[in-house]
């Protein structure tokens, strides 16, 4: 025992935080969500109400370092809390709080004074706009342009598939300042919707209705000069630097979806009877459950390891990409098996399984597709790059 180092238990404080967030979810957040219309994106007012409920638990400032005014919680502990919030709120909270963290870490004093109070109180929502209609995986080729005209930046271009895009007050937009420099010409600007209006088109997708995905159109949008967040040459780096963390949180989101599908299945197999017996007594149904449980546990362990490395300040490109690609593909497998276990009922909107499956199917694409994650792993393992 003296040499044992691995520890699969959470600390007492972590368990306590998890319990308190679970209580908030079951007593306040989930009942409120159940009163909303299914598959219709939450209104902005409702989204803000949910942020206000989560705010006292530190969900809006937890990951910001203490020296930047946050509570400096480590990523693993934050992820354990994040697991407990309802699936429909994960994107809203995750995306807006990482926007906030970007300002707290990289913003000027005046940007912090202007933007942080509303974000930290849950009165404002942020999002991050990288993807364009013709540029997805290859972020170095982004085209949305910005040039200085007097005291203002003039922004032109289109961003697409932007989470929180339908309801965000602030957007961190990756722009190209000098296209001859490709990736080295990129930087980011904060665009405030009220101050610098732009057009927003909601996008209809398979799942993830409360991701509020949108296309944003910038047509000669004028933005104050002082809204520059990451100057020319730092845009790509500032975007890529956060990816190890984002990937762990997408993995956590996927693990929660899969865990829910497994929980529903375990209940159902004991209630549903065929051939005069609960279907859970059939060996082939038990095999599906055993495969689902193995998948979910393996995925959680891989994800916790990456989060633990992040918490210790260690670089984890292989581990975070492994977590992201394994967890999101796993969630598709597990939610699909959960539908199989529920038979035809699993396909109906009376049951939650088809919704979990549709949401899971969305997660293999953002923050680097499964293929991109595997190529990052391949590059780290071999030292050979598949692309520039
Ligand atoms: C739910 C969701 C939320 C999102 N949220 C945001 C957001 O908040 N902000 C934002 O900016 N964007 C967001 N996106 C967009 C997302 O980041 C992009 O969809 C993603 O980067 C992939 O780009 P793409 O869809 O254009 O696919 P493409 O890059 O066109 O890829 C298409 C296919 O080709 C494969 N492929 C591409 N390049 C290679 C290669 N070199 N080798 C092998 N295969 C390759 C891909 O794996 C994929 O299968 C979101 C997307 C989704 C689905």
Indicate the topology.
Layout lengths: L11 H23 L9 H11 L20 H8 L4 H20 L2 H13 L4 E4 L15 E5 L2 E11 L7 E7 L9 E7 L6 E4 L11 E11 L3 E3 L4 H7 L1 H29 L1 E2 L2 E2 L4 H29 L5 H26 L10 H10 L7 H13 L6
Parallel strand pairs: 1-4
Antiparallel strand pairs: 2-3, 3-7, 4-5, 5-8, 6-7, 9-10
Helix pairs in contact: 1-3, 3-7, 4-5, 7-8, 7-9, 7-10, 8-9, 9-10, 9-11
The structure holds flavin-adenine dinucleotide (FAD).
What does this structure look like?
- With 388 residues, the protein is of the alpha+beta class.
- It has helices spanning 12-34, 44-54, 75-82, 87-106, 109-121, 235-241, 243-271, 283-311, 317-342, 353-362, 370-382, and strands at residues 126-129, 145-149, 152-162, 170-176, 186-192, 199-202, 214-224, 228-230, 273-274, 277-278.
- The protein folds into three domains: 12-124, Orthogonal Bundle (Butyryl-Coa Dehydrogenase, subunit A, domain 1); 127-233, Butyryl-CoA Dehydrogenase, subunit A, domain 2, CATH 2.40.110; 242-382, Butyryl-CoA Dehydrogenase, subunit A, domain 3 (Up-down Bundle).
- Helices cover 49% and strands 14% of the residues.
- It has a four-stranded mixed sheet, covered by helices on one side.
- A hairpin with a 2-residue loop joins strand 9 (273-274) and strand 10 (277-278).
- Helix 3 packs parallel to helix 7 (243-271).
- The longest helix is centred in the middle third of the chain and has 29 residues, at 243-271.
- The structure holds flavin-adenine dinucleotide.
- The site of flavin-adenine dinucleotide (FAD) has 22 residues, from strand 1, strand 3 and helix 11.
- InterPro entries: Acyl-CoA_Oxase/DH_mid-dom, Acyl-CoA_Oxase/DH_mid-dom_sf, AcylCo_DH-like_C, AcylCo_DH/oxidase_C, AcylCoA_DH/ox_N, AcylCoA_DH/ox_N_sf, AcylCoA_DH/oxidase_NM_dom_sf.
- Its cofactor is FAD.
- Belongs to the acyl-CoA dehydrogenase family.
- GO terms for molecular function: acyl-CoA dehydrogenase activity; flavin adenine dinucleotide binding.
């Amino acid at each position: 025992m003296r040499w044992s180092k691995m520890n699969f238990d959470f600390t007492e404080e972590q368990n306590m935080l998890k319990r308190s967030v679970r209580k908030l979810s079951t007593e306040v957040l989930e009942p409120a969500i159940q009163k909303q219309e299914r598959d219709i994106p939450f209104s902005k007012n409702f989204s803000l109400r949910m942020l206000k409920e989560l705010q006292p638990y530190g969900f809006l400032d937890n990951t910001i370092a203490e020296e930047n005014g946050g509570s400096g919680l480590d990523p693993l502990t934050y992820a354990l809390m994040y697991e407990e919030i309802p699936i429909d709120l994960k994107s809203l909270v995750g995306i807006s709080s990482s926007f906030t963290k970007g300002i707290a870490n990289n913003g000027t004093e005046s940007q912090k004074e202007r933007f942080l109070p509303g974000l930290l109180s849950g009165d404002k929502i942020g999002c991050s706009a990288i993807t364009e209609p013709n540029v997805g995986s290859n972020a170095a080729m982004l085209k949305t342009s910005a040039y200085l005209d007097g005291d203002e930046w003039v922004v032109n271009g289109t961003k697409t598939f932007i989470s929180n895009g339908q309801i965000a007050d602030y957007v961190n937009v990756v722009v190209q300042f000098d296209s001859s420099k490709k990736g080295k010409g990129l930087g980011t600007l904060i665009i405030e919707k009220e101050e610098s209006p732009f057009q927003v088109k909601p996008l209809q997708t398979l799942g993830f209705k409360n991701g509020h995905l949108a296309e944003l159109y910038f047509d000669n949008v004028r933005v104050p000069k002082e809204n520059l967040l990451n100057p020319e040459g730092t845009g790509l780096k500032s975007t890529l630097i956060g990816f190890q963390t984002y990937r762990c949180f997408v993995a956590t989101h996927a693990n929660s979806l899969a865990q829910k599908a497994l929980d529903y299945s375990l209940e159902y197999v004991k209630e549903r009877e065929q051939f005069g017996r609960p279907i859970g007594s059939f060996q082939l149904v038990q095999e599906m459950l055993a495969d689902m449980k193995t998948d979910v546990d393996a995925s959680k362990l891989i994800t916790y390891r990456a989060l633990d490395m992040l918490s210790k300040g260690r670089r984890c490109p292989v581990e975070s990409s492994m977590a992201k690609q394994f967890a999101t593909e796993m969630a598709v497998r597990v939610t699909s098996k959960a539908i199989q276990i529920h038979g035809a009922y699993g396909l109906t909107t009376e049951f939650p399984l088809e919704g979990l499956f549709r949401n899971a199917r969305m997660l293999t694409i953002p923050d680097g597709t499964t293929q991109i994650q595997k190529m990052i792993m391949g590059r780290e393992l071999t030292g050979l790059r598949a692309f520039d």
